[in-house]
Amino acid sequence: MLWINSARLGRLEFTEKQVIAFPQGLPGFDTYTRYLLLPLEEKTTPVYFYLQSLEEGDLGFLLIDPFYFFTDYECHLPNEVVETLRIEKEEDVLILTTVTVPGTIERATTNLKAPLVFNMAQRLARQVLLEDTSYLIKQPLFIAESEGQGKEG
Questions:
Q1: I need a surface site. Which of 38, 39, 144, 148 has the fewest CB within 10 A?
Q2: pLDDT, tens digit, 9 for 90 and up, residues 118-130
């Protein structure tokens, strides 16, 4: 059993089979390529996740399922992404977005323009910039929950 000390979650034990590779890293963190994806709820279909770097205990990201908050959200993956992540079946794909909390949770935003795309079967992921959309990089999260919005308008 392997382990890492997460600054936010404490000691985390994991196996190599749980590791998700971001071969290109994440923008601004391109040297960190190995992560754990941890659901923050004990539900069949969790909404909140934590992405913990395995190379830096202080590096982690709060993620959400954007389809829960934005019912009209659409994410069409370019063929290049499907090939790079070796996606064969739609059910292997998990799409999540990063959350930023500037102060209070009521002011939280999520990045709908550049979701994280996971191929859970292959344990591969990357951040994808969606082209030709009006989605926001800093979409208010809780305003959308009541309005079902996610696009400029």
A1: 148
A2: 999 999 999 999 9
